[in-house]
């Protein structure tokens, strides 16, 4: 087996026995997890003996071991890749999991276990870290990993509590502390996980020694609020004597499935201990409102300046400090011959994109704005950088651009291409990459699946994301226009945005469930589900996370998707042509309703935790340092 078969994309984790890498199998195109197995801790003789057995475990709720591969230095276990992370991460993330979703995870685990036990394999180290998640059209699937590894390590003499006691004490059945194990030991561990999912804490907490005493002697206290059927499941699963527990995984699976069905039909009102889903903020919301003579189509906020685009005018307001600040103390205006389409920030200055007429043959233009040279309120037509001829910006063309990078990517669709090349594109688009700011094409246009979004990731790579009825496809490409094999996820997405702090991280909302968002890490490929409990209409990235705007509501999330604040807005940001722009400590919304334009300025400083304000100060210090 050649190790060059796998192209390593990055490290996803670190376990007791070594690193776990995300890699692409060059033969099949699918993603795999490469688990680096330390030769000292898991000698080959133990390992090879079990490999055939582990590889024979093929079940939708078990992470399959595909094979083993070597390099001169290392030995890897090749496994199915699970992009959703571990159950531990899911529990720790303040995602609101419904009661039924929690039970479904346990049902998945029991199905995998039933199959493994029927094949005479005991896990011996079941815990949320060994339950991995994948996303399918139907939802989340839980899969058990690391079958047999604990027992192998135990035989090799490695343990948590000393020789021969490999396992995690919080989930270890009493007999495991005496180095004994049976199928019932696995069912006890599932009982602890079920308890944790239902009660939001484990039955016993403490240091390994204290845990051992508790598992051996103490009776787990099950809160009265847990529905009777599940209390009885927990009591049986957590029995001290293995013979008093469920006779098999099949029996426990039946009991949990029955409880899930009955409780679903009763519409159980059992509420779990509340997780920190919505931080309460009683502080006053600082909001200013101003009527505007005409609709504002685009807003851009940059440090002390706010740019507002309205028809064929751009107004720049200068403030004494970073927005939001009292003022403005100065206002400048530029007038263009053509309507302003949007505002971009490239390098150290703002650029205005204007569009012309109604036919795609007429080019759009980029105009640099210079604050120094333009007299107040004097209309001026600034020089055009380049005629992007043949590119019709109104035909849903996409632009990927990060100010600090010296290139930008543009795609144009069917109509423009036909006009330029006289050919049919089908569902594809033409990708063109330009040097910035010279606007020289870097390579011949390449055909890619027509994207919904285009992002520049760094000085070499970009990604185009396209969405069809039931999938989202992520197509990486280089600055030279070479494409990589795409990643797909079985969920069509909407409203995608790129993180300010980590360009390889995207946040998007599910089309099927608009109250569900996904944090998408491109390198290595990881998905984190975030339940929002509101339906965002716009997502704005900031230096410390994201601002999500919904009807009369705002949710502020950290980079990791943790909710930082949630408050009501007296206006609905989706009113007609609402446009938003975000600064680090506030945002602006413009609305257009009944022929009347309103511009709102929202200061969120008092809603942010201390560390966000610190991030803001740090980034200011870095910017000032750079400028100096
Ligand atoms: N098949 C996989 N697909 C995707 N990520 C994985 C996969 N296997 C492991 N990981 C990631 O790697 C991390 C480390 O996994 P690993 O199984 O080595 O350690 P662990 O289960 O946390 O601890 P232990 O070493 O005690 O088993 C996991 O937390 C998970 O994030």
UniProtKB/TrEMBL annotation:
Pfam families: Pkinase
Gene3D superfamilies according to UniProt: Transferase(Phosphotransferase) domain 1 (1.10.510.10)
GO molecular function, one term: ATP binding
Keywords: ATP-binding, Kinase, Nucleotide-binding, Serine/threonine-protein kinase, Transferase
Residues that bind ATP: 35
N-terminal signal peptide: none
Enzyme Commission (EC) number: 2.7.11.1
SUPFAM superfamilies referenced in this protein's UniProt entry, alphabetically: Protein kinase-like (PK-like)
Ranges of residues in domain Protein kinase: 6-258
Keyword Kinase listed: yes
Superkingdom assignment: Bacteria
Catalytic EC class: transferase
Family the entry assigns: Belongs to the protein kinase superfamily. NEK Ser/Thr protein kinase family. NIMA subfamily.
Protein name in UniProt: non-specific serine/threonine protein kinase
Taxonomic source organism: Acaryochloris marina (strain MBIC 11017)
């Amino acid at each position: 087996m050649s190790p060059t078969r796998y192209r390593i994309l990055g490290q996803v984790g670190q376990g007791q026995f070594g690193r776990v890498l995300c890699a692409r199998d060059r033969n099949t195109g699918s993603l795999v997890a490469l688990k680096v197995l330390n030769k000292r801790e898991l000698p080959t003789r133990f390992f090879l003996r079990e490999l055939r057995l582990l590889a024979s475990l093929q079940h939708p709720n078990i992470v399959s071991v595909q094979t083993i591969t070597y390099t001169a230095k290392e030995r890897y276990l090749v496994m199915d890749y699970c992009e959703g992370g571990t159950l531990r991460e899911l529990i720790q993330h303040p995602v609101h999991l419904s009661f039924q979703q929690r039970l479904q995870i346990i049902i998945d685990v029991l199905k995998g276990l039933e199959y493994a036990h029927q094949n005479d394999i005991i896990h011996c180290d079941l815990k949320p870290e060994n339950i991995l998640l994948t996303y399918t059209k139907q939802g989340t699937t839980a899969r058990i990993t690391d079958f047999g590894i604990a027992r192998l390590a135990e035989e090799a003499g490695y343990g948590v509590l000393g020789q021969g006691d490999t396992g995690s004490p919080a989930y270890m059945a009493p007999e495991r502390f005496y180095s004994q194990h049976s199928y019932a030991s696995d069912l006890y561990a599932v009982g602890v996980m079920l308890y944790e999912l239902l009660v939001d804490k484990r039955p016993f907490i403490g240091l390994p020694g204290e845990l051992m005493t508790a598992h051996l002697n103490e009776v787990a206290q099950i809160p009265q609020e847990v529905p009777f059927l599940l209390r009885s499941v927990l009591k049986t699963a957590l029995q001290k004597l293995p013979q008093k527990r469920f006779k098999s995984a099949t029996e426990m699976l039946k009991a949990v499935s029955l409880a899930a069905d009955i409780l679903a039909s009763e519409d159980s009102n059992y509420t779990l201990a509340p997780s920190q889903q919505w931080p309460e903020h009683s502080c006053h919301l600082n909001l200013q409102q101003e009527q505007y003579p005409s609709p504002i189509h685009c807003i851009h906020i940059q440090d002390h300046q706010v740019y507002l685009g309205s028809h064929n005018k751009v107004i720049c307001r200068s403030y004494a400090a970073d927005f939001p600040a009292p003022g403005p103390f100065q206002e400048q205006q530029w007038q263009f011959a053509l309507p302003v389409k949007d505002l971009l920030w490239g390098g150290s200055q703002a650029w205005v994109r204007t569009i012309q007429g109604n036919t795609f043959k007429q080019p759009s233009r980029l105009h640099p704005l210079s604050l120094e040279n333009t007299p107040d309120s004097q209309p001026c037509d600034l020089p055009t950088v380049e005629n992007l001829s043949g590119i019709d910006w109104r035909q849903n063309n996409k632009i990927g651009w990060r100010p600090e990078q010296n290139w930008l990517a543009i795609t144009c669709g069917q109509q423009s291409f036909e006009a330029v090349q006289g050919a049919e594109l089908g569902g594809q688009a033409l990708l063109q990459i330009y040097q910035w700011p010279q606007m020289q094409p870097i390579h011949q246009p390449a055909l890619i699946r027509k994207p919904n979004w285009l992002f520049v990731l760094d000085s070499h790579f970009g990604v185009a994301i396209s969405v069809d009825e039931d999938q989202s496809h992520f197509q990486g490409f280089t600055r030279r226009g070479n494409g990589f094999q795409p990643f797909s996820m079985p969920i069509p997405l909407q409203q995608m945005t790129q993180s300010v702090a980590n360009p390889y991280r995207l946040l998007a909302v599910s089309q099927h469930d608009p109250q569900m968002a996904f944090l998408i890490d491109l390198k290595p490929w990881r998905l984190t589900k975030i339940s929002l409990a509101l339906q965002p209409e716009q997502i704005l990235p900031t230096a410390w996370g994201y601002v999500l705007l919904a009807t009369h509501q705002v949710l502020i999330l950290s980079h990791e998707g943790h909710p930082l604040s949630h408050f009501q807005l007296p206006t609905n940001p989706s009113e007609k042509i609402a446009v938003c722009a975000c600064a680090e400590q506030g945002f602006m919304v413009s609305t257009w309703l009944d022929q009347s334009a309103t511009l709102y300025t929202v200061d969120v400083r008092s809603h942010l935790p201390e560390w966000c304000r610190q991030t803001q100060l740090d980034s200011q210090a870095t910017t000032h340092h750079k400028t100096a």
